[in-house]
Design goal:
The structure holds three protein chains of three kinds. Chain A has twelve helices and twelve strands. Chain A is α+β, with helices and mostly antiparallel strands. In chain A, helix 11 links the parallel strand 11 and strand 12. The radius of gyration of chain A is 32 Å and the shape is elongated. Helices cover about 45% and strands about 25% of the residues of chain B. In chain B, helix 1 packs across helix 4. In chain C, about 40% of the residues are buried. The longest helix of chain C has 10 residues. Helix content of chain C is about 40%, strand content about 20%. The chains are: A alpha+beta, B alpha+beta, C alpha/beta. At the B-C interface, helix 1 and strand 1 of B face helix 1 and helix 4 of C.
């Protein structure tokens, strides 16, 4: 059976796009799949430069790729996962997602005309919108799950586990680029008494409100986490000690000046803050320990205040214990 | 169980065909990149695919490396998957040569582009030597900047019986680019390959 | 007296291919070597008329052999037979004194033409 007649109707009805280009990247043929979606006529684009017809196509990158196909006589590929689309074409899905254009997989194949040995490159374009939509949904769910895994359920700040991971990252970064980095540890003063007096629900609300208040005082890049119970910690990247003390004092003042409403009552609260600063020899664990020692000293000094870590703190605390 | 091992003649034959394919590839790459490309004698090793992850553990552990896969199909049941392994810092050099510094291209896209150029150019040459022609699946990034590099390689190698390990060193005029190519070939395709090699050997 | 030709290639297949590709009119004894060091040992110990020399080989590559031939002023025709066919490489080996450059896999017609040109057949 002679099947020479087959390629014509196939190209007409193929559910993929076909664009044939000559060595100058001029359009030789476009099948109806592309013509209809791009709303162009084959006759009107034949012989025209690809990028004069598809003006939005990524010219620098795509022409480099097409030239590699011609010169190496090896196929090249483009996947929607890396580049959502090459050509702005509509897709046939109901507009259920944000993506306006058809996600595309594209194969670029070297072809040689048997008679003339003339070289061409053929673009085969497949609709990958379904895969794209599915993947986007999956990514969104994963992102939500990731958020849940990183946050403290009650206060919405970072949980201890994730906060500690971030501290490791920041300590490494500060070490590598010799950037300053400071740490605040703070604790709600007399939180146990508040719980005993007004109940755990009141305690929870105080934690939530204080966390909210402090979050509003921080920069986007600061990393605010709940370390445990009523203890919180803040990583201040690119911040030297003076800046950190300034932030700590502001936190202290604002918390003390902002009583929290609970069942028609105004609950007064305050925080004690310990500050430590990173230097090249400090590990993440040491940084935590130093801020924690300073916090302990702030409590001993009478609460509602800021104490900065200094090496003698260790000795003075030893004396207290012995 | 069918014997998938190669005789010394078959191994030598394959080595020579690969050398010739490499020569064709380096010539094409040199013309394309407009620089002198020197391909060192590729050491080929035929190993059980299951042993592959262990062999690369030491070489790539702890480095930012990248692993790109590309499937190929030929006539007569010849098929397989190539995996190209390289360190990311090497990728930057060749990317610059390919002109990748001038526009916004994602790293994954750059890696798949580099890999498909290196792999398909070589495989086209090999197909030519075997009187065959290959068609290719789009390349995909299996792992990049990934701590579980070896784990991913284990998962990939698991499906295959035989692995042909080809160490390639592309030396360009002003720097060298090391990478490892692994050809993973399923059992039945190994038998086809052995038959093809025997044909080549019988001719000489 | 018949000429002695040396085929130097690390691959047995390539050496056999080379032997079979030689034109029937070429009347010569054939000796072989599987790397550059072996080839130099042969060249130093016996009279060789022509070498068919591969480039990519372990121990000592073809360029190394050409350099040694040049340095030791050996009187021998060298025809490079290589898979590495880049123009740069061709230029390099011709500068080192090779007579001709034949691309692998060997095309017998081209080989005959080259050998005729240099009076080997």
């Amino acid at each position: 059976m002679n099947i020479d007649w087959l390629s014509g109707p196939l190209l007409q009805q193929l559910n993929s796009g076909v664009i044939l280009l000559n060595k100058q990247l001029q359009i030789v043929y476009i099948n109806p799949y592309i013509c209809r979606r791009a709303d162009i006529q084959l006759e009107s684009v034949q012989g025209k430069d690809l990028f004069s017809v598809f003006t939005d196509a990524p010219q620098a990158w795509l022409s480099r790729k097409l030239h590699s196909v011609l010169s190496l006589q090896s196929p090249a590929f483009s996947s929607w996962e890396q580049r959502q689309y090459l050509f702005k074409l509509p897709h046939l899905r109901p507009v259920s997602s944000a993506n306006q254009y058809m996600a595309q997989n594209c194969s670029m194949l070297p072809l040689t005309e048997p008679g003339s040995n003339e070289q061409y490159v053929c673009l085969l374009i497949e609709d990958a919108t379904d895969a794209y939509v599915y993947q986007s949904q999956l990514q969104q769910s994963n992102l939500q799950l990731q958020q849940v895994n990183r946050l403290d359920g009650l206060t919405g700040v970072l949980n201890r586990n994730y906060w500690q991971q971030q501290l490791e990252v920041e300590v490494q970064r500060a070490g590598r680029y010799q950037h300053p980095l400071s740490l605040l540890f703070f604790d709600l003063d007399k939180f146990k008494r508040l719980n005993d007096e007004y109940g755990h629900q009141a305690g929870d609300i105080v934690l939530i409100e204080v966390a909210k208040l402090i979050s509003s005082l921080l920069r986007e890049t600061d990393l605010f986490g709940r370390y445990g119970g009523e203890e919180f910690a803040i990583i201040l990247p690119d911040t030297p000690l003076e800046g950190a003390i300034e932030v700590a004092r502001r936190i202290c003042r604002r918390v003390a000046a902002s009583p929290i409403s609970y069942q028609q009552q105004q609950l007064k609260t305050s925080v004690s803050v310990g500050v430590s600063e990173f230097n090249a020899a400090t590990s993440a664990d040491e940084l935590i320990q130093q801020a924690d020692l300073a916090l302990y000293q702030a409590k001993r000094n009478g609460r509602n205040q800021v104490v900065t870590y200094y090496p003698e703190l260790i000795d003075s605390l030893k004396k207290v214990k012995s | 169980m069918t014997d998938l091992s190669f005789t010394e003649e078959q191994r030598d034959c394959l080595q020579e065909l690969i050398n010739v394919a490499m020569g064709l590839a380096s010539d094409k790459l040199a013309r394309f990149l407009n620089t002198f490309v020197h391909l060192q004698v590729p050491a080929i090793g035929l190993v059980n695919a299951a042993e592959i992850p262990e062999q690369f553990r030491g070489q790539y552990q702890g480095l930012h490396s990248s692993m790109i896969s590309l499937g190929f199909f030929g006539d007569g049941g010849l098929r397989g998957e190539t995996i190209l392994l390289y360190q990311l810092e090497n990728a930057g050099k060749i990317a610059a040569l390919l002109g990748y510094d001038d526009d916004a291209t994602s790293e994954a896209e750059m890696l798949t582009d580099i890999s498909s150029i290196l792999t398909t150019t070589f495989l086209n040459g090999l197909a030519e030597q075997l009187d065959n022609s290959f068609s290719y699946a789009a390349p995909r990034v299996i792992s990049s900047r990934d701590n579980d590099f070896i784990g991913k390689l284990e998962q990939t190698a698991f499906h295959w019986q035989l692995a042909l390990k080809v160490d390639i060193r592309y030396e360009l005029t002003d720097y060298s680019f090391d990478c490892n190519m692994i050809l993973l070939i399923p059992g039945e395709a190994v038998l086809k390959l052995k038959t093809i090699l025997d044909h080549v050997l019988a001719e000489f | 007296m018949a000429l002695t030709a040396l085929i130097c290639d690390d691959s047995l297949l390539a050496r056999n291919q080379m032997k079979k590709s030689l034109p029937p009119a070429f009347d010569a004894d054939i000796v072989t070597a599987s790397n550059g060091l072996e080839a130099l040992a042969v060249l130093r110990s016996q009279e060789i008329g022509v070498v068919f020399l591969d480039l990519t080989m372990p121990e000592l590559d073809g360029v190394g052999v050409l350099e040694a031939i040049k340095a030791e002023k050996m009187d021998v025709f060298v025809i490079v037979v290589s898979a590495d066919i880049q123009p740069e490489m061709q230029k390099r080996v011709m500068e080192l004194g090779a007579l001709a450059f034949i691309q692998k896999p060997v095309n017998t017609d081209k080989l005959s033409a080259v050998m005729r040109q240099y009076g080997l057949i």
